[in-house]
Amino acid sequence: MAKLKITLVRSTNSSNQKHRRTVNALGLRKIGDSVEHEDTPAIKGMVRQVSYLVSCEEV
To answer: Across the 59 residues of the chain, what is the mean pLDDT of every consecutive 10-residue run?
Structure first.
């Protein structure tokens, strides 16, 4: 299965509380943090929800 590299590129300060929790659930804390997750529908949905805060690329 493919992996996704997700990087936080914008601050979560002025974002919706639900979106902040989604970013934290992905494992991102500070701008520039990157994590790798399996390419599953759940992770894709989380990334789609906060797409304005993160960048995503396939590894």
So the answer is: 95 95 97 97 97 96
d(CA 20, CA 13): 8
CATH of domain 3-58: 3.30.1390.20
For the beta sheet containing 54-58, the strands, ordered from the edge strand earlier in sequence to the opposite edge, are 34-38, 3-8, 54-58
pTM of the model: 0.92
Could you count the other beta carbons within 10 Å of the beta carbon of residue 20? 14
Per-domain residue ranges of the chain:
3-58
